[in-house]
Amino acid sequence: MNRELFILCRHMIWSFEALSLFCPQLWAASAELPCTDIRKLDLRNMSIDVGDAIFDFPKGVASIFEDEESKTLEWEATLKRDTTIDVAPGVPVRFVLIYNNYMSGSGWQFYFAGYGCFQGKMKQVIRQHGLSLKIDQMNEHAVVVSKILEYGNPA
């Protein structure tokens, strides 16, 4: 089985902070919400930008309809995991795993993203999506997420 790894280490967070100071346009897309402590944000009741999609979560469930008129539920996203880790002293990062289920058929997608408060704004520091994400390690030393690749199919 082939796997593709995505790793976020402690020293990389300091690089993200430096990027925010000197190259703000290079930051990953994020909600840009005012933020002083990521642990205090109610992610289950707000919009979360994961790069490819924006999920509007009232009570931890985001519903995406086919169109406004028919009210046919097409996709339903739920927060499956919400973990905060101090990746450096005084630097908490909040990691979320979102399961997006195709309600009209048999499709799904997982989104894994990490957010922190830098310079008073919520910033995304890592993101990954795929059909088969696995969180291999998530602690103060490193976050390792793998994507299982099927033989012959690039990620």
Folded structure, characterized:
The protein has 155 residues and is mainly beta. The chain has one domain. It has one helix at 10-22, and strands at 2-9, 47-49, 54-56, 61-65, 73-88, 91-102, 108-118, 121-130, 133-138, 142-149. A hairpin with a 4-residue loop joins strand 2 (47-49) and strand 3.
Residue share in β-strands: over 45%
The radius of gyration over CA amounts to 16 Å
Looking across the biggest beta sheet, what order are the strands in? 4-5-6-7-8
Assign a percent range to the helix content. Answer: under 10%
Descriptive labels:
155 residues; 5-stranded antiparallel beta sheet; 1 helix; 10 strands; globular; disordered C terminus
Summarize the structure.
The protein is mainly β. It is 8% helix and 53% strand.
Question: What are the SSEs and their pairings?
Answer:
Layout (H helix, E strand, L loop, with lengths): L1 E8 H13 L24 E3 L4 E3 L4 E5 L7 E16 L2 E12 L5 E11 L2 E10 L2 E6 L3 E8 L6
Antiparallel strand pairs: 1-10, 2-3, 4-5, 5-6, 6-7, 7-8, 9-10
